[in-house]
Amino acid sequence: MRRRWVIAAAVVAVIAAAVAGAGAFIWYAPAPMLRAPVEVVIEPGDAMRIVADKLARAGVVRSALALRLYGSMSGDARRIKPGDYSFLGGEWMADVMGHLVRGDIVVVTVTIPEGLTLRQIAERLEAAGLGCADEFEREAREGPLVEALGLGPLGAEGYLFPATYRFSPRANSAEILAAMLGRFYRTLTPPVEERMFELGLTNRELVTLASIIEREAKAAGDRALIAGVFYNRLALGMPLQADPTAEYALDGNQKLSTADAVRIPTAFNTYAFTGLPPGPIANPGMQSIEAALYPAKTRYLYFVARDDGTHLFSRTFAEHQRAIAELKRVAARAAPRKAADSKRTE
To answer: What is the pTM of this model?
Structure first.
Protein backbone atom coordinates (compact mmCIF):
# COMPACT_ATOMS: atom_id res chain seq x y z
CA MET A 1 0.00 0.00 0.00
CA ARG A 2 2.75 2.34 0.97
CA ARG A 3 4.56 1.55 -2.22
CA ARG A 4 1.49 2.48 -4.26
CA TRP A 5 1.28 5.80 -2.49
CA VAL A 6 4.95 6.48 -3.23
CA ILE A 7 4.46 5.62 -6.88
CA ALA A 8 1.32 7.78 -7.07
CA ALA A 9 3.07 10.68 -5.40
CA ALA A 10 5.97 10.37 -7.82
CA VAL A 11 3.59 10.36 -10.78
CA VAL A 12 1.81 13.43 -9.45
CA ALA A 13 5.16 15.17 -8.92
CA VAL A 14 6.26 14.37 -12.47
CA ILE A 15 2.95 15.62 -13.86
CA ALA A 16 3.17 18.77 -11.74
CA ALA A 17 6.74 19.37 -12.85
CA ALA A 18 5.74 18.84 -16.47
CA VAL A 19 2.83 21.23 -16.12
CA ALA A 20 5.03 23.78 -14.38
CA GLY A 21 7.69 23.38 -17.02
CA ALA A 22 5.15 23.76 -19.80
CA GLY A 23 3.73 26.81 -18.08
CA ALA A 24 7.18 28.32 -17.64
CA PHE A 25 8.01 27.60 -21.26
CA ILE A 26 4.79 29.28 -22.40
CA TRP A 27 5.58 32.20 -20.09
CA TYR A 28 9.15 32.69 -21.29
CA ALA A 29 8.82 31.43 -24.88
CA PRO A 30 8.87 33.91 -27.78
CA ALA A 31 5.66 35.81 -28.37
CA PRO A 32 4.09 35.34 -31.81
CA MET A 33 5.41 37.32 -34.74
CA LEU A 34 3.63 40.65 -35.13
CA ARG A 35 1.84 41.67 -38.30
CA ALA A 36 3.81 44.92 -38.42
CA PRO A 37 6.69 46.43 -36.41
CA VAL A 38 5.54 47.94 -33.14
CA GLU A 39 7.29 50.83 -31.42
CA VAL A 40 7.68 50.91 -27.65
CA VAL A 41 8.95 54.06 -25.97
CA ILE A 42 10.95 53.58 -22.77
CA GLU A 43 11.06 56.86 -20.90
CA PRO A 44 13.96 57.87 -18.64
CA GLY A 45 13.16 56.68 -15.13
CA ASP A 46 10.67 53.98 -16.18
CA ALA A 47 10.65 51.21 -13.56
CA MET A 48 10.97 47.56 -14.63
CA ARG A 49 7.26 47.09 -13.88
CA ILE A 50 6.33 49.87 -16.33
CA VAL A 51 8.72 48.57 -19.01
CA ALA A 52 7.34 45.04 -18.69
CA ASP A 53 3.74 46.27 -18.90
CA LYS A 54 4.48 48.29 -22.05
CA LEU A 55 6.12 45.33 -23.78
CA ALA A 56 3.36 42.92 -22.80
CA ARG A 57 0.62 45.28 -24.00
CA ALA A 58 2.47 45.66 -27.31
CA GLY A 59 2.63 41.87 -27.71
CA VAL A 60 6.44 41.77 -27.60
CA VAL A 61 6.48 39.35 -24.63
CA ARG A 62 3.84 36.91 -23.39
CA SER A 63 3.89 37.94 -19.74
CA ALA A 64 4.81 41.17 -17.98
CA LEU A 65 5.37 39.27 -14.73
CA ALA A 66 7.71 36.81 -16.42
CA LEU A 67 9.74 39.66 -17.88
CA ARG A 68 9.93 41.36 -14.48
CA LEU A 69 11.17 38.11 -12.88
CA TYR A 70 13.70 37.59 -15.68
CA GLY A 71 14.96 41.16 -15.40
CA SER A 72 15.31 40.86 -11.64
CA MET A 73 17.09 37.49 -11.68
CA SER A 74 19.45 38.47 -14.52
CA GLY A 75 20.22 41.93 -13.16
CA ASP A 76 19.23 43.46 -16.50
CA ALA A 77 16.39 45.44 -14.94
CA ARG A 78 18.92 48.00 -13.66
CA ARG A 79 20.65 48.38 -17.04
CA ILE A 80 17.75 49.24 -19.35
CA LYS A 81 18.37 52.27 -21.57
CA PRO A 82 15.55 54.67 -22.44
CA GLY A 83 14.60 55.39 -26.03
CA ASP A 84 12.37 54.39 -28.92
CA TYR A 85 12.46 50.66 -29.69
CA SER A 86 10.98 48.74 -32.61
CA PHE A 87 10.00 45.07 -32.28
CA LEU A 88 8.75 42.46 -34.74
CA GLY A 89 7.89 39.80 -32.16
CA GLY A 90 9.03 36.19 -32.23
CA GLU A 91 11.99 36.83 -29.90
CA TRP A 92 12.99 35.06 -26.70
CA MET A 93 12.80 37.10 -23.53
CA ALA A 94 16.61 37.19 -23.31
CA ASP A 95 16.74 38.74 -26.79
CA VAL A 96 14.12 41.35 -25.89
CA MET A 97 16.05 42.31 -22.76
CA GLY A 98 19.25 42.36 -24.80
CA HIS A 99 17.82 45.11 -27.02
CA LEU A 100 16.89 47.17 -23.97
CA VAL A 101 20.28 46.74 -22.30
CA ARG A 102 22.29 47.50 -25.46
CA GLY A 103 20.10 50.47 -26.30
CA ASP A 104 19.14 49.27 -29.79
CA ILE A 105 16.91 52.29 -30.21
CA VAL A 106 15.25 53.52 -33.37
CA VAL A 107 17.01 56.57 -34.79
CA VAL A 108 16.50 58.83 -37.77
CA THR A 109 19.77 59.55 -39.56
CA VAL A 110 19.92 62.80 -41.50
CA THR A 111 22.93 64.30 -43.28
CA ILE A 112 23.24 68.08 -43.53
CA PRO A 113 25.66 69.00 -46.36
CA GLU A 114 27.82 72.11 -46.30
CA GLY A 115 26.39 75.28 -47.76
CA LEU A 116 22.67 74.80 -47.15
CA THR A 117 20.59 77.68 -45.85
CA LEU A 118 18.53 77.46 -42.69
CA ARG A 119 15.38 77.03 -44.77
CA GLN A 120 16.91 74.22 -46.82
CA ILE A 121 17.98 72.44 -43.63
CA ALA A 122 14.47 72.78 -42.22
CA GLU A 123 13.04 71.21 -45.38
CA ARG A 124 15.57 68.36 -45.24
CA LEU A 125 14.62 67.63 -41.62
CA GLU A 126 10.93 67.56 -42.52
CA ALA A 127 11.63 65.21 -45.44
CA ALA A 128 13.37 62.87 -42.97
CA GLY A 129 10.25 62.80 -40.83
CA LEU A 130 11.64 65.10 -38.14
CA GLY A 131 8.82 67.54 -37.57
CA CYS A 132 7.66 70.55 -39.54
CA ALA A 133 10.01 72.78 -41.57
CA ASP A 134 8.20 75.97 -40.57
CA GLU A 135 8.37 75.02 -36.89
CA PHE A 136 12.12 74.34 -37.02
CA GLU A 137 12.79 77.56 -38.93
CA ARG A 138 10.82 79.54 -36.37
CA GLU A 139 12.74 77.89 -33.52
CA ALA A 140 16.07 78.56 -35.24
CA ARG A 141 15.28 82.22 -35.89
CA GLU A 142 13.64 83.36 -32.68
CA GLY A 143 13.51 80.46 -30.21
CA PRO A 144 14.70 80.63 -26.58
CA LEU A 145 18.07 79.01 -27.31
CA VAL A 146 18.80 81.47 -30.12
CA GLU A 147 18.02 84.35 -27.77
CA ALA A 148 20.11 82.84 -24.95
CA LEU A 149 23.14 82.54 -27.27
CA GLY A 150 22.74 86.12 -28.49
CA LEU A 151 22.12 85.10 -32.10
CA GLY A 152 19.17 87.42 -32.60
CA PRO A 153 17.79 89.07 -34.59
CA LEU A 154 19.13 87.03 -37.53
CA GLY A 155 18.87 83.67 -35.80
CA ALA A 156 20.97 80.52 -36.17
CA GLU A 157 21.72 80.87 -39.90
CA GLY A 158 25.38 79.93 -40.31
CA TYR A 159 25.65 78.17 -36.94
CA LEU A 160 23.89 74.92 -37.93
CA PHE A 161 26.96 72.76 -38.33
CA PRO A 162 26.91 70.45 -41.38
CA ALA A 163 27.27 66.82 -40.27
CA THR A 164 25.43 63.51 -40.07
CA TYR A 165 23.06 63.46 -37.12
CA ARG A 166 21.11 60.67 -35.42
CA PHE A 167 17.87 61.75 -33.76
CA SER A 168 15.03 60.05 -31.97
CA PRO A 169 11.91 59.96 -34.17
CA ARG A 170 10.26 62.04 -31.43
CA ALA A 171 12.97 64.71 -31.31
CA ASN A 172 11.45 68.18 -31.34
CA SER A 173 12.76 71.31 -33.04
CA ALA A 174 14.44 72.61 -29.89
CA GLU A 175 16.36 69.33 -29.38
CA ILE A 176 17.49 69.20 -33.01
CA LEU A 177 18.56 72.83 -32.93
CA ALA A 178 20.52 72.27 -29.71
CA ALA A 179 22.39 69.33 -31.28
CA MET A 180 23.40 71.35 -34.35
CA LEU A 181 24.42 74.43 -32.41
CA GLY A 182 26.34 72.24 -29.98
CA ARG A 183 28.37 70.79 -32.85
CA PHE A 184 29.17 74.29 -34.07
CA TYR A 185 30.30 75.66 -30.73
CA ARG A 186 32.54 72.62 -30.19
CA THR A 187 34.53 73.78 -33.23
CA LEU A 188 35.44 76.99 -31.39
CA THR A 189 38.45 75.43 -29.67
CA PRO A 190 41.03 77.62 -27.90
CA PRO A 191 43.33 77.67 -31.00
CA VAL A 192 40.38 78.81 -33.14
CA GLU A 193 39.46 81.54 -30.67
CA GLU A 194 43.09 82.69 -30.51
CA ARG A 195 43.21 82.91 -34.30
CA MET A 196 39.93 84.86 -34.35
CA PHE A 197 41.44 87.30 -31.86
CA GLU A 198 44.54 87.72 -34.07
CA LEU A 199 42.32 88.51 -37.07
CA GLY A 200 39.95 90.71 -35.07
CA LEU A 201 36.93 88.60 -36.00
CA THR A 202 33.78 88.02 -33.99
CA ASN A 203 31.92 84.70 -34.19
CA ARG A 204 29.37 86.22 -36.55
CA GLU A 205 32.03 87.76 -38.81
CA LEU A 206 33.91 84.47 -39.00
CA VAL A 207 30.81 82.48 -39.88
CA THR A 208 29.60 85.13 -42.33
CA LEU A 209 32.89 85.11 -44.23
CA ALA A 210 33.07 81.31 -44.12
CA SER A 211 29.52 81.05 -45.48
CA ILE A 212 30.41 83.19 -48.51
CA ILE A 213 33.53 81.09 -49.12
CA GLU A 214 31.40 77.94 -48.84
CA ARG A 215 28.94 79.15 -51.46
CA GLU A 216 31.66 80.40 -53.84
CA ALA A 217 34.08 77.47 -53.63
CA LYS A 218 33.28 74.29 -55.52
CA ALA A 219 36.82 72.89 -55.45
CA ALA A 220 38.39 72.38 -52.02
CA GLY A 221 41.75 73.71 -53.22
CA ASP A 222 40.23 77.11 -54.06
CA ARG A 223 38.87 77.90 -50.60
CA ALA A 224 41.98 79.51 -49.13
CA LEU A 225 42.60 81.51 -52.33
CA ILE A 226 39.02 82.78 -52.38
CA ALA A 227 39.40 83.72 -48.72
CA GLY A 228 42.60 85.58 -49.61
CA VAL A 229 40.77 87.56 -52.31
CA PHE A 230 38.04 88.57 -49.86
CA TYR A 231 40.57 89.65 -47.21
CA ASN A 232 42.43 91.71 -49.81
CA ARG A 233 39.21 93.41 -50.90
CA LEU A 234 38.17 94.12 -47.32
CA ALA A 235 41.58 95.64 -46.59
CA LEU A 236 41.31 97.93 -49.64
CA GLY A 237 37.70 98.94 -48.95
CA MET A 238 36.48 97.20 -52.12
CA PRO A 239 33.06 95.55 -52.19
CA LEU A 240 33.26 91.75 -52.08
CA GLN A 241 30.93 91.49 -55.10
CA ALA A 242 30.07 87.88 -54.26
CA ASP A 243 27.15 86.59 -56.33
CA PRO A 244 25.86 84.24 -53.60
CA THR A 245 25.22 87.18 -51.27
CA ALA A 246 22.96 88.78 -53.86
CA GLU A 247 21.24 85.45 -54.53
CA TYR A 248 20.60 84.94 -50.80
CA ALA A 249 18.44 88.03 -50.70
CA LEU A 250 16.21 86.51 -53.40
CA ASP A 251 14.84 84.12 -50.76
CA GLY A 252 14.19 81.38 -53.31
CA ASN A 253 12.64 83.63 -55.95
CA GLN A 254 13.28 81.62 -59.11
CA LYS A 255 11.95 84.36 -61.41
CA LEU A 256 15.06 86.49 -60.91
CA SER A 257 18.47 85.57 -62.28
CA THR A 258 21.80 86.28 -60.60
CA ALA A 259 22.28 89.17 -63.04
CA ASP A 260 19.00 90.60 -61.76
CA ALA A 261 19.91 89.95 -58.13
CA VAL A 262 23.19 91.88 -58.18
CA ARG A 263 21.29 94.99 -59.23
CA ILE A 264 18.93 94.86 -56.25
CA PRO A 265 20.42 96.86 -53.34
CA THR A 266 19.57 94.59 -50.38
CA ALA A 267 21.33 94.36 -47.01
CA PHE A 268 23.06 91.14 -48.10
CA ASN A 269 24.08 92.17 -51.62
CA THR A 270 27.83 92.79 -51.45
CA TYR A 271 27.72 94.55 -54.81
CA ALA A 272 25.81 97.37 -53.09
CA PHE A 273 28.20 98.10 -50.18
CA THR A 274 31.68 97.43 -48.82
CA GLY A 275 32.40 95.07 -45.95
CA LEU A 276 30.64 91.92 -44.85
CA PRO A 277 26.87 91.45 -45.00
CA PRO A 278 24.98 91.58 -41.68
CA GLY A 279 25.07 87.82 -41.25
CA PRO A 280 25.82 84.44 -42.85
CA ILE A 281 24.19 83.41 -46.11
CA ALA A 282 24.53 79.65 -45.53
CA ASN A 283 25.86 77.14 -43.03
CA PRO A 284 29.55 76.51 -43.71
CA GLY A 285 31.58 73.40 -42.99
CA MET A 286 34.91 73.17 -41.22
CA GLN A 287 37.00 73.52 -44.39
CA SER A 288 35.46 76.90 -45.17
CA ILE A 289 35.81 78.02 -41.55
CA GLU A 290 39.50 77.08 -41.68
CA ALA A 291 39.90 78.98 -44.96
CA ALA A 292 38.40 82.06 -43.30
CA LEU A 293 40.86 81.63 -40.43
CA TYR A 294 43.89 80.91 -42.60
CA PRO A 295 43.47 82.64 -45.98
CA ALA A 296 46.11 82.25 -48.66
CA LYS A 297 48.62 85.10 -48.77
CA THR A 298 48.06 86.40 -52.26
CA ARG A 299 47.74 89.60 -54.28
CA TYR A 300 44.65 88.37 -56.13
CA LEU A 301 41.59 90.61 -56.14
CA TYR A 302 39.38 88.80 -58.67
CA PHE A 303 38.30 85.30 -59.62
CA VAL A 304 35.97 83.74 -62.17
CA ALA A 305 34.61 80.19 -62.25
CA ARG A 306 35.49 77.61 -64.88
CA ASP A 307 32.94 75.03 -66.05
CA ASP A 308 34.52 72.37 -63.82
CA GLY A 309 33.98 74.46 -60.66
CA THR A 310 37.57 75.61 -60.23
CA HIS A 311 38.47 79.30 -60.55
CA LEU A 312 40.86 81.55 -62.44
CA PHE A 313 42.39 84.21 -60.19
CA SER A 314 43.64 87.65 -61.25
CA ARG A 315 45.48 90.55 -59.62
CA THR A 316 44.05 93.36 -61.75
CA PHE A 317 40.73 94.12 -63.37
CA ALA A 318 42.36 93.98 -66.81
CA GLU A 319 43.66 90.46 -66.08
CA HIS A 320 40.22 89.52 -64.82
CA GLN A 321 38.59 90.74 -68.04
CA ARG A 322 41.05 88.71 -70.11
CA ALA A 323 40.33 85.62 -67.99
CA ILE A 324 36.59 86.03 -68.57
CA ALA A 325 37.13 86.47 -72.31
CA GLU A 326 39.33 83.36 -72.44
CA LEU A 327 36.73 81.26 -70.62
CA LYS A 328 34.05 82.47 -73.04
CA ARG A 329 36.24 81.44 -76.00
CA VAL A 330 36.80 78.01 -74.45
CA ALA A 331 33.06 77.63 -73.89
CA ALA A 332 32.30 78.68 -77.48
CA ARG A 333 34.76 76.13 -78.88
CA ALA A 334 33.31 73.40 -76.65
CA ALA A 335 29.67 74.14 -77.51
CA PRO A 336 29.57 72.31 -80.93
CA ARG A 337 31.31 69.30 -79.43
CA LYS A 338 28.83 69.16 -76.54
CA ALA A 339 25.92 69.46 -78.96
CA ALA A 340 27.29 66.58 -81.07
CA ASP A 341 27.82 64.41 -77.98
CA SER A 342 24.26 65.17 -76.88
CA LYS A 343 22.84 64.05 -80.23
CA ARG A 344 24.81 60.81 -80.11
CA THR A 345 23.31 59.96 -76.71
CA GLU A 346 19.72 60.66 -77.77
So the answer is: 0.80
